[in-house]
Amino acid sequence: MWTWSRKELKTNAKAALKRSFWKDLLALIIVGLIGSAVSYCVFLIFNAATGGKIFEYQEALQNIQNGAQDAEVIQKLNEEVGPAYSIFSMINSIVSLFIIVPLGIGTYRFFQVSRSGNASFSEIFVPFKKFLKMGLIMMWLGIKVFLWSLLFIIPGIIKAYEYSQVPLILAENPSIKCRRAFKISKAMTKGNKWHLFVLELSFILWVLGTIFTCGLLGIYFAPYYQATFVEAYYKMKAKALADGAFTLEELPNICIPAAPIQAGVIAAAQNPAPAVATEAATATAVAAAPVEAAPVEAAPVEAAPVEAAPVEAAPVEAAPVEAAPVEAAPVEAAPVEAAPAEDAPAAE
User: What pTM was computed for the model?
Assistant: First the structure.
């Protein structure tokens, strides 16, 4: 269920752009230049191989569409350049699938990491290490959407939004299996397809403004659009993770901001029913939250009562006492005075 407003997504995207707008814009320019250079090189090679006939054939096709080209000219070019142009179209599609598409997925990865403000341009080329896998998965996505579109178009549009998160999933984990990527995208977009459609429509004025300003407004619009849908991805990812659609081992966060977040409040918003958020859900909730430091209040700490342990008196042994030698003091004899003797009576 969609629990975040478009205003919140765009506010978070603007906050992310404030940290690294010029770097984000430069990343889009780099990917655009590489893609254009690769396609142009393929065109030059085939055009030179056919003596300039590829360019002439494309110009004739353009004139046919404008109603200013004779059908005989295009028929002649079909005979001369038709097979070569078919080979050129096929090679150009393969190059786009296995070079430009992985770079596009790398752009998503750059914006995912850029949410923390520490993105490196090397992130753009991380999915390119598995370019064959990236190309095949995205080709399979296109085939599935095309087949569903054969059922009166509407089912194809629905499936396009259902699989819309596959490139962002591959950007965060290039090693994930194809089936799991589609299954996780389906879980993330459950109940959100209409909201994603409306979110795209909300940029219609930006598109018109970019056209009327000859692309000048696109300098801000391009990274703003990309950042907004990356924010939507993380909001849907947090909800799908809380619902148990996948684990953080399958899809680890690569954009955990450094600022502290009230993770408990975010987890409660994702799960209206009172429940204890798991550690994994909390981690993804942190990634989905705007990067604003929340005030932290220190909880009062109560001292636990301490009971005095009984102290046993240790037996004290009396130390042997040695008698100090006593010296006899010299005794002086007192002078004795002889008492006067009385004469005894004489015997008669």
Answer: 0.71
